[in-house]
Please model this.
Amino acid sequence: MKIPNPRRVIGGLFPILRWSRSYDLGSGIGDLIAGITIALTLIPQSIAYASLAGFEPQYGLYASFMGGFVYAVMGTCPQVNIGPSALLSLLTFTYTNGTNADFAVLLCFMAGIVQLVAGVAQLGFLVEFVSLPVVSGFTSAAAITIASSQIKGLLGLKFNADTFIATWQGLFQHIRETRIADTLLSLCCCIVLMGMQALKDVPVKQAQDEKGKRSAAVKAKMLWFIGVSRNAVVVVLATLTAFLMYNDIEDPFLLTGDITPGLPTPRPPAFETVVGDKEYTAGEMFSYLGTGLIVVPMVAILGNVAIAKAFAKGKTLDATQEIVALGACNVVSAFFRSMPVNGSFSRSAVSEASGVRTPAAGFYTGVIVILTLVLLTPYFYFIPRSALASVIVCAVLCMVDIAILKRLWKTSRLDLIPLVGCFLCCLFLGIEIGLICGVGIDVLLLLYYHSRPPLDVQYVNDGTLPPHYSIHPVGGLNFAGAERVRSKLLALKHTRAVPVVPVTTIQSLPVTTENGQNGTNGRVSRDVEASGVRSADLLVVHCDSLYRVDYTFLQSLKMLVQDWSLTGRVIWCNAKPAVKAQLSSVLPDPICCDSDQLRAYLTSTDEQYGNSDTTPL
Model:
């Protein structure tokens, strides 16, 4: 066993050791600008996402700095910013609702442990089993669920609701309690947010001279920066409005309230806690979190790897290192009272547009968040909840992917089943159950495809070889399609010969499915005769692209060969050594040959068992 080079292992585990060697002033300025810009987006988002998760605003800030520090050391994608996200905040609320922050911190810690184990064990490939339609249905349903959960904040209502259905039921029950001031403020915030977002896409007229081009570039950059900083601008303006009106009108808005200032004291996550009058042991806490211990880290991995792939720009992505880095971010963040974290696509897009050079941008973002915790938390008291709800709603609505419906309708309509199924299950049964249902639908479709392997049966009579049937199986043959393939080939064998005009080409045989439509599976006897070809006693299985046959399929082949060998033979052409060994284990003396030997085998076998033109089957 070859011992890996320690320097290479350490360099792979800590990519900062590689890119820091070429770090210069230009890279530092680019990362600083990106770090500041991301902080303007992250800070108001983190406060809002903490309320979405059901905790005090400071917990969103606690989750916003250590992830950036750790990822700067271990991450590989400069654009990724680790912190709270809308989806993980919703999942955190789902699994910790009715408890305290200790449950969220423990969930963050255990999610990191699961991610580290997945990375070390090279289990990142499991993410590939979740198809893009399922991911799209899941994120779209999550976005609608998140937006729905914030409607009470937009209208200034107070009621408890855990699910999509419960939220709308509560809304109709408490609609008469709507607060006009909060509703008007949230409406104004949403209008400003959408208007400022549109500013970054406003075209700037290009001038012909050099000075005019520079001026146009500056204007375009200013418009983009205003659009990017919209969350911070709206929160600041709404806070000023609430502060100015606070002394004139009694309780004009529902406010965020007191926020614990300062940095959290580093300590391990609590494995025992008290909620109300009930004491929870470690086992009871794990039991309460339940499937969240798996769902949360897997969803975080899925999101992070997807973001890194999107910004890889064709470069090779070390998905395993990304998973390990994300796990380390969660484990370390848990010691600073953080809820689960991962990358955010919106913040990553801001980072890319800001000219980020390396993952060091996370350092600058983390420092700004720490300064905010130390210096600015007393001023967060006056942040209206309706403003935070507006920030969340405008941030998540872009997650709803409607365009994929049109693309799937044009390319693969069957993929609409897992998308719509996952979407509806997430809305009406819950996010975690919906994701499991979506994966389950994918698995069922995968089994359906495998139970109908493409098997193009050809009749060959080109004058150079004796007439025979030819098939070219591709990939692996498994139990799901064993009986269907056997039935199809046996149907060929029991077809009666009919007088036909000599065929001088290789002809694909049409196959009729049970409902009478053309397809690749079903009854074939009637179609062979209708196609105008003669029956043959020889079947050639070309194994060039066949790499595996499972035990059930081998037993099915054994019965097929026994039946076919009554009046003919099955010849295995270009079988790989592994496939030959499998065939020899169940078949007595299988006939195997190479392509250059096929003519001789066909001729000798045809002479031995008679010409198929005159021998009835």
